[in-house]
Each structure stands twice: as structure tokens, then as C-alpha cells.
Amino acid sequence: MLSPELLHALHNLPLAAKQAAEGFLAGQHLSRRRGPGMEFSQYRPYQPGDDLRRLDWRLAARSDRYYIRESEVDTSLTVHLLLDASASMNHRDDNGLTKLEYGRLLLAALAYLAQQQGDAVSLSILHPQGLVHLPARADSRQLPRLYQALQNTAGTGRFPEAGQLAPLLARRQRALTVCVSDLYEEESEISTLLTRLRAVAGEVLLLHLMADNELRFSYRGSLTFEDLESGQTVQLNAEQERASYQQQLQEWLRTTAQAARRQGFDYHQLNILEPLDGALREFLRRRQATSF
């Protein structure tokens, strides 16, 4: 699995998405259900009300018993991808990659993977300039549209206000929603949106992006930190504040994960220094467990 910085260095989002996802396609199969499909699976005894067109008349003639041919048919679903494009996602890790750049790579790979699974994919980019939304489609032209929208995305401002997000909640199509965010919020605007989406659309997979230099607080000396959304600054000595910072961070991460799972989200924390395989694996697991 290529590192995220090497994938980003390709400067080719479609190629990077394919490189990141194709290793997971080997040995993976579309989720299946029993039904009148084309690929034969097994026989079962006839029951009143069964479609007689699925009756195996040759087997009935030989055995004097009636059996229905069951097949396996591909099941697909709608995958709704959400990208937090607020300014806090511009935080840069020691590998030179920002959270937003990692998020773009991740969602591009998930879109590629979902299309390979036969799913309809939509994309919503959340930033204060206005909601960018590409409706769900399963056709071959959808991926280029998604890639283009992701490539054109820049992190700016704060998370959008509730009024700007109303169109997302008006769509009541059942879907697996995948949200990529650093969960930087003033109050509870992100969790509120996801709670409402879960109520109207179904499952929510929440991928929480954290930079490695945030997790380890790998800074040295006296520094000035700036809030990327508010512009507020604070001066501190990294060595003196490291222990207190890490204690508070771990408490925040613990309560954030607990609150997300309590609200019914499938929550996973991701370190943007690490490859995308963990997120892709969680997506496949959730997709295969989801039935509409």
C-alpha cells in the first residue's frame, strides 16, 4: 500500500484513487442475496406462491419433486460521501500532507471502490461558500465528476451553517453515508448534521482525521499556534505543555468516540500519516454489513 504522500505526489487523483483501492479488490466480491439472478446458486423445495418460471421442470420430471432454482444476484446501494472542507482541514502533518489532501485521496479511493462494487455514489463538499453536491449516479461518467469536484476543493472558513445544509436533509434516499472530517466544531454542528442524516438516510461511517504531529505533539521550543478558522493565536512552550496537551487530547478523543457511537455512528479515527488501507477496510466491512 503506497503512503498517502506518495499518492498525493502523483498529482493525478484518478490514478492515485485506483492505486489505493485496487489492492482491496482482489478477493473481494459484491455482496449478494438469494434471488432470481443469472448465476445459479442452489435448489430449494417449491413453496406455494413461488414463481413457476423458476421451477426446474427437468429435475421435476426425473425426481417427481418440485424444486426452485435459486441464484445469487448482486446487491448495490447508494454511497453518500461527505467532505468537511472547512479551514481547519488545512492543518499540515510532518509528511507535508494536509488533512484535506488526505481526505480528498481517501474519498476518491472510496468512490472508485464503490463504483467497482456497482454502487451509486454521491458527493457533498461542506464549506461556507455553499454546498457542492453531486447527486448519486452509478454510470461511468460519475467518477470523473467526483474527481474534478474533489480536485477543485480548497479548505476555507468555518463549517457551514445549518441553513446551507438543509438540501442534504431533504433527500430521503436510503444510503450509506461516509463522512470525512477532523470534527473541529464550535458547538455540535457536525454531529447534529450526521445525526439528522442517519435519521433520514440510514448508516453513517464517520472517519475522523487526525494529524500525527497533533497526536504526538511533536513540536519543539517556544511556538505560536494559530486557529485556522478563527485566526486566534496562543504562544506556548511545547516541552512544558506536552504532557497536559496529550492528556486533554486523549480525553477529547475518548469522549468524541463515545459520543459518536452513542449516536449510532460507526466511528473510526485515522492518522493521516498512515496508508488508506484502514479506512478502505472499514468501508468494505460496513458496506457488506449494510442491507437496504
Automatic annotation (TrEMBL):
Specify the DUF58 domain's residue ranges: 42-249
Q: Which Pfam families match?
A: DUF58
Lineage, top-rank taxon, reads Bacteria
Coiled-coil regions listed in the entry = none
Q: Which PANTHER family match?
A: BLL2464 PROTEIN, DUF58 DOMAIN-CONTAINING PROTEIN
Q: What is this protein called?
A: DUF58 domain-containing protein
Organism for this UniProt entry: Hymenobacter elongatus
